[in-house]
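Open question from group meeting: does this chain pack into something compact, or does most of it stay loose? Before anyone orders reagents, we agreed to write out a predicted structure and look at it together. Recording both the input and the output here so the notebook holds the full record.
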Amino acid sequence: MHDDNDTICTLHDTLEDTEITKEEIAEYFNKDVANLVDGVTKLVN
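Structure tokens returned:
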């Protein structure tokens, strides 16, 4: 999970600052990482 935490921290602004979608993150990483990135993005905003 440590690697996933690093990934989530790195990607936390990706959904709002780029054209990359949650689905694309899920395809490249996995569904859990995509959901956590989405959740962190919503918490920050």
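Observations to bring back to the group:
The mean pLDDT is 85.
The CA atoms of residues 12 and 39 lie 9 Å apart.
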